[in-house]
């Protein structure tokens, strides 16, 4: 084949040398706009795993790179007058120029044709090529020549950064966080050769402008950074190699995702690699890794399919299919890390103590979890667990410390034995709103299973507030008696507390039981519906009446009565349901609230009636018991509420006396398009907890102890609500404790023999070699 690589970065050079090494008969050229052995930039970082792949594919260049790179395991954080260090993280740093020089030299040794100082405008400049590699970087002319094909999605991120260097050597990947009168700045620092370290300084746009950095030249910016980071520099100076950039050298990161990576231009197949196809923020140092991995995978596919040019279409199709998955994974992790640094000042640095700030930073990408930290640096993590346990009020001895999810949590005068909550999950099994033996067994077994707080499903304040005829209610004494039966059992048989979630279905009421047709209107026996506005949930749903003041007064009286009855049950916790498109949620969301009176329009107006209900309930609910609010923190549809809106509502409920926000999302509109994934709703909890300053519950795709420990330890939530895993396993909390080797968590005395056998079986399975 005739192959032309346009752009002599890591992707183009590494692909060229691999293909030439494996099939010397290929004619391969690399065309680069810069001079020979010249490049811009300081050091680049990639992981130990990338080096393993490079050793496998080309031991010769890998050996040279390993001789030149700097390897370190430690991360050190300077924050609020402290220095914290942890080990076991496995980074590789090398000068970008040195890396490219090694790859250039290797290409020359393999007879790859290197052409320098040549600016390529288009892939059409090489009509005889069978394959053209668009590896010409973020501003790729090859990609930009076919925007309708590649469909690039480029987003400019808000933070500013400047890429500098220093001759001071650092023996750890160092982060330094400094607060100024206008906001926080952070430095990302790592050594990449025996003389030089990369020194990236980052801040918000607001701080950048407030300090006048937009008006400074590079020398002025360098002087500012040297003064700000004088402690970590310890007398060393900073340098720039971006003199080719006019004015300020502060940049914005551009996140790139392409809809397609390859194209046939009529003569040649064109494929994108590296930054031309995708970018990943420097916060996890993954740009070079992605470029190298692109080159390896494209080469691998030629090895599998064959190196004849008629195989190119199949190769490119499979290459993109495989790489898109891994790139999405890395980009998601990089996005999480990037967003952490974008809000680090107001969300974390201002609020968290140094140990928890360090933990939050280490787990910012969500690729590193609690137990992964234990593998990396057991001593550091156990020290952190000891600190967290002491902050939770535990006396810490020499035995293994309780991990965060099993530490107690106190709100008002109610103390939970641990941080795990059984989510309210509709069972659709009540008659006339009355709890029965099924509910007692269902909820009682979860209490015996070790959770700290047990919620029944949304409990409706009147018969016409129900979602379905099978929903729980709390409007009469018969219902109170059954609720009290549950509460008394849980209190007598376990350490768990009991919560009641009061709500009103609104426009989502009068529907069939879930297994008969979820959200589908009743064929008979329906009741009239009310909502903020006359907007039906489904096209075939009943059109609700837009509530007038008389309706509001009646429903407020219903909530007051149900709260009074909740007090009689002896329950420990009360929650107001303002989420998922039900009645009070319909006031909060602009999708369902189209009113033009004092209950529509602004955030304050839309929250007016839900706040009225909340205040009336809080006045009745005992002052020594907590009261929370469940919010839909994202409507997942155009024109709906976003996390920014949810934060405003959270602040309003906090000011009204709410103790905690239960952070869910969605189910407001059938047009929603949620972005699911592991812990996909936890960022909403993180934002509200740390920006609004109110405790939160995280919920959604939390399925193992590692998830819960990571969330709580990082301060992303105070409690974790677990739903579906509790349906599959009533003793989820006890089993998760055993799985992480925590044998000190008590089981019900009736189950002790099962505890011993369960733990023994886990230990045996862990030591048994897998079958070959």
Distance between the termini: 42 Å
| Percent of sequence in beta strands | 15-25%
Q: Give the full name of the CATH homologous superfamily of the largest domain.
A: Aldolase class I
Treating each run of at least 4 consecutive H or I residues as one helix, how many helices?
27
Mean pLDDT: 94
Instruction: Please state the overall shape, judged from the principal axes of the Cα atoms.
Output: globular
Low-confidence stretches: none
**What is the level 1 CATH name of the largest domain?**
Alpha Beta
At the fold tier of CATH, the topology name of the largest domain is TIM Barrel
The portion of residues assigned to helices is 25-40%
Architecture per CATH nomenclature, i.e. the level-2 architecture of the largest domain: Alpha-Beta Barrel
Largest sheet: 8 strands, mixed
> What's the number of extended β-strand segments?
30
| Count of individual domains | 2
Structural class: alpha/beta
InterPro entries: Aldolase_TIM, FAD-bd, FAD/NAD-bd_sf, OxRdtase_FMN_N, YqjM-like
Organism: Rhizobium lusitanum
GO molecular function, one term: NADPH dehydrogenase activity
Keywords: Monooxygenase, Oxidoreductase
């Amino acid at each position: 084949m005739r192959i032309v690589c346009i752009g002599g970065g890591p992707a183009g050079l590494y692909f060229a040398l691999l293909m030439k090494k494996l099939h010397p008969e290929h004619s391969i050229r690399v065309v680069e706009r810069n001079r020979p052995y010249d490049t811009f930039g300081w050091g680049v970082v990639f992981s130990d795993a990338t080096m393993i792949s490079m050793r496998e594919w080309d031991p010769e260049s890998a050996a040279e790179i390993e001789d030149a790179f700097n390897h370190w395991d430690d991360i050190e954080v300077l924050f609020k007058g402290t220095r914290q260090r942890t080990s076991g993280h496995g980074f590789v740093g090398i000068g970008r120029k040195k890396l490219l020089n090694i790859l250039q030299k290797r290409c020359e040794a393999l007879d790859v044709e290197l052409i320098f100082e040549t600016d390529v405008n288009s892939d059409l400049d090489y009509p005889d090529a069978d394959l053209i590699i668009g590896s010409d970087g973020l501003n790729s002319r090859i990609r930009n020549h076919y925007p309708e094909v590649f469909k690039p999605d480029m987003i400019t991120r808000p933070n500013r950064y400047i890429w500098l260097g220093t001759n001071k050597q650092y023996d750890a990947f160092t982060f330094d966080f400094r607060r100024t009168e206008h906001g926080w700045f952070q430095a990302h620092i790592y050594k990449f050769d025996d003389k030089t370290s990369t020194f990236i300084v980052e801040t918000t746009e607001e701080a950048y402008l407030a300090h006048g950095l937009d008006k400074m030249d590079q020398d002025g910016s360098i002087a500012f950074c040297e003064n700000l980071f004088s402690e970590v520099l310890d007398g060393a100076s900073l340098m720039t190699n971006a003199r080719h950039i006019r004015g300020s050298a502060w940049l914005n990161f551009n996140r790139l995702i392409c809809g397609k990576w390859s194209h046939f231009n009529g003569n040649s197949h064109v494929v994108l690699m590296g930054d031309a196809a995708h970018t990943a923020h420097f916060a996890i140092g993954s740009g070079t890794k992605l470029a190298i991995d692109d080159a390896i995978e494209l080469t691998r596919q030629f090895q599998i399919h064959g190196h004849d040019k008629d195989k190119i279409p199949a190769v490119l199709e499979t290459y993109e299919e495989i790489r898109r998955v891994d790139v999405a994974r890395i980009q998601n992790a990089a996005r999480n890390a990037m967003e952490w640094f974008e809000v680090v000042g107001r969300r974390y640095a201002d609020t968290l103590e140094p140990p928890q700030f360090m933990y939050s930073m280490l787990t910012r990408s969500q690729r590193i979890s609690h137990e992964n930290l234990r593998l990396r640096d057991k001593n550091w993590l156990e020290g952190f667990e000891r600190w967290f346990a002491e902050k939770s009020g535990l006396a810490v001895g020499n035995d293994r410390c309780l991990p965060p999810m099993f530490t107690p949590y106190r709100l008002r005068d109610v103390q939970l034995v641990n941080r795990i909550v059984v989510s309210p999950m509709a069972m659709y099994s009540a008659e006339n709103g009355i709890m029965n033996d099924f509910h007692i067994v269902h909820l009682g077994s979860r209490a015996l299973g070790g959770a700290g707080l047990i919620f029944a499903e949304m409990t409706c304040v009147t018969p016409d507030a129900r979602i379905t005829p099978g929903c729980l209610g709390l409007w009469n004494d018969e219902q109170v008696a059954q609720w009290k039966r549950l509460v008394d059992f849980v209190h007598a048989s376990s350490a768990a507390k009991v919560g009641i979630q009061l709500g009103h279905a609104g426009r989502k009421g009068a529907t069939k039981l879930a297994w008969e047709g979820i959200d589908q209107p009743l064929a008979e026996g329906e009741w009239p519906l009310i909502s903020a506005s006359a907007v039906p949930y489904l096209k075939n749903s009943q059109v609700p009446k837009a509530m007038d003041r008389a309706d509001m007064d009646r429903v407020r009286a219903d909530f007051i009565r149900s709260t009074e009855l909740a007090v009689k049950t002896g329950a420990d916790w009360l929650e107001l349901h303002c989420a998922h498109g039900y009645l009070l949620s319909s006031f909060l969301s602009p999708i369902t609230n189209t009113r033009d009176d004092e209950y529509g329009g602004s955030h304050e107006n839309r929250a007016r009636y839900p706040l009225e209900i909340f205040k009336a309930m809080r006045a009745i609910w005992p002052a020594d018991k907590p009261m929370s609010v469940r919010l839909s923190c994202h409507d997942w549809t155009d024109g709906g509420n976003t996390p920014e809106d949810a934060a405003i509502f959270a602040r309003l409920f906090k000011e009204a006396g709410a103790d905690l926000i239960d952070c869910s999302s969605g189910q407001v509109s059938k047009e929603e398009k949620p972005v699911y994934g592991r812990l996909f709703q936890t960022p909403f909890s993180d934002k509200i907890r740390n920006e609004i300053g109110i405790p939160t519950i995280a919920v959604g795709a939390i399925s193992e102890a590692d998830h819960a420990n990571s969330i709580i330890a990082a301060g992303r939530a105070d409690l974790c609500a677990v739903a579906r895993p509790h349906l599959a396993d009533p003793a989820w909390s006890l089993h998760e404790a055993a799985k992480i080797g925590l044998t000190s968590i008590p089981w019900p005395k009736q189950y002790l023999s099962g505890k011993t056998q369960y733990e023994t079986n886990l230990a045996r399975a862990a030591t048994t070699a897998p079958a070959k």
